Amino acid sequence: MKLHPVDTGSETLRLMNNSDQSILSWKGIIHQYSRYLPVKSEDAVISLNEGNTPLIRADNFAKSIGGDFEIWLKFEGLNPTCSFKDRGMTVAVSAAVQKGAETVVCASTGNTSASAAAYAARAGISCTVILPHGKIAQGKLAQALMYGATVIAVEGNFDQALQIVRELGSIDKVEVVNSINPLRIEGQKTAAFEICDTLQRAPDYHFLPVGNAGNITAYWRGFKDYFSIQKTDRLPAMFGFQAAGAAPIVNGEPVANPETVATAIRIGNPASWQGANTALQESKGFIDKVEDEEIIHAYKLVAKTEGLFVEPASAAPLAGLIRCAKENRIPSGSVITASMTGHGLKDPDTAINNAGFSPIVIKPELDEVLKTMGL
Ligand SMILES: *Cc1c(COP(=O)(O)O)cnc(C)c1O
To answer: How far, in Å, is the centroid of ligand 1 from the Cα of 267?
Structure first.
C-alpha cells in the first residue's frame, strides 16, 4: 500500500493510507509493514496499535540553537507504553506466542520492562522483568507493576541484569525479549520507514540516543531496507549520542559503573555494540558523548520551545545537535530527523527536580493571583 503524508496544518505529520482509510484504521506496525518483517499480519499478532507516531517539525528549537536546518522530531513517546520499545515488542511477543512461549523475560532500564509487561498482558502470558534496583524512573516502574509483571530488582546495574536474563533464555517456554532477540530490532526499524514515508524522502542526518545500541542498529537497517528497494534516494548519516558517564562506544571500552541522569541509556556494555559500529561506519556517521548538564539543558529547551516533553535519554541527541550546530558540523539546509525515544511523564522526578521552580503558593484571592501574574 502506498503511503503519503498528510499535513494537518500544524507541521505535525502522521501517516495515512491513501485511499478511503483514515488514520483511525491504523492497526499497528506488523499490519502496516508486514512485507518487511518476519512476522506476518495473517499470523496471530499481539498488538496495541503501536507506531504511526507524529513527526513534528521543530523550527522554534532550531532557531533557539542557531541552526540553519530543518529539524523533525519523531515523537516515539506517543506509542502505547510511551516509548519506541513497543515497535520491537509487538514482533517479539507475537513470535514468542506463536512458538508456544508461556513467559517472557527481560532485563531493563525501565522502558523494555513496561513494554514487555504490556504486550505479555495483551497476549495472556506471564512476564518477569529484572531491573537495576533504585535506578528506574517512577513512571516505568508504575507501568510494569500495573501490567501485572513479576518485577525483580537486583542490587546491580543493567548489564548484570542482562547477564542473568541471557541464562534464563535456555529454559523451555521462556522467551527473552531484550534487543538481543533479533525480532526486536526488526520491529524497531519501522520507525525509519515511517520517517521516510512521512517526509517522502530519507533525511540527511538521523540523530538518536545510544544505550544498548539496538535502536541505532534498527534505524540503520530500516533506512537501508528502503534504500535498497529504491523507496528512497539517499541514506542518512547516523549520529548517536551517549551520556558522558555511560559512553562505552565513544570511549572504546566497557564502563563498569555507568552513571547518568538519563537512566534509559545508563548502560556500560551495549549488546548491539557491533550493530552500532556498522551503522556508524556504513553511514559515515558520528558518535559522541554529552554531559548530564547538556542533556538537562536540551530537555528543558525542547519542552519550552516546542511543547514537547520527552524523557532525559531522548534529550541526549538534542544536546548533541546543539553541539553540532556550535561546531558547524551540519551543512545549512540539511534535513535532520531525531528520535524522541520516550515520554517525559515516564520520569516525573527528574522534571520536578530540574524545572528550577515550584508552584507559587498564595491565598485563594483574585488580587493575589493578579499580583503574582504581574497585572
Ligand atoms: C531503550 C531506550 C533508549 C536506548 O535505546 P538502545 O536501543 O538501548 O540504544 C533510549 N531512550 C529511551 C527512552 C529508551 O527507552
So the answer is: 10
Q: Ligand 1 in contact with 209 (CB < 6 A)? A: yes
Report the alpha-carbon distance of residue 160 to residue 215 in Å, rounded: 20
Look up cell 561546531; give the residue: 327
Q: What angle do CA 280, 303, 134 make, to 5 degrees?
A: 75
Does the global pTM surpass 0.90? yes
Q: What are phi and psi of 205, to 5 degrees?
A: -135, 140
Q: pLDDT tens-digit profile of 235-273?
A: 999 999 999 999 999 999 999 999 999 999 999 999 999
pLDDT of 313? 98
CB-based contacts of 367, cutoff 8 Å, min separation 6: none
Ligand 1 atom closest to the CA of 214, numbered from 1: 7
For the chain, give the longest Cα–Cα distance: 69
d(CA 129, CA 196): 34
Q: Average pLDDT, stretch 183-196? A: 98
Phi, psi of 300 (to 5 degrees): -75, -40
CA 256 to centroid of ligand 1, rounded, Å: 19
Cβ 77 under 6 angstroms from ligand 1? no
Residue with cell 556517521: 285
In angstroms and rounded to an integer, the radius of gyration of the C-alpha atoms of the chain is 20
Q: What is the rounded CA–CA span in Å between residue 43 and residue 341?
A: 28
pLDDT tier, 321 (very low <50, low <70, confident <90, very high otherwise)? very high
What is the C-alpha separation between 309 and 352, in angstroms, rounded? 12
pLDDT band at 2 (very low <50, low <70, confident <90, very high): very low
Under 8 Å between Cβ of 239 and 205? yes
Q: Sign of the CA dihedral 77, 79, 85, 88?
A: negative
* Atom number, ligand 1, closest to the C-alpha of residue 218: 7
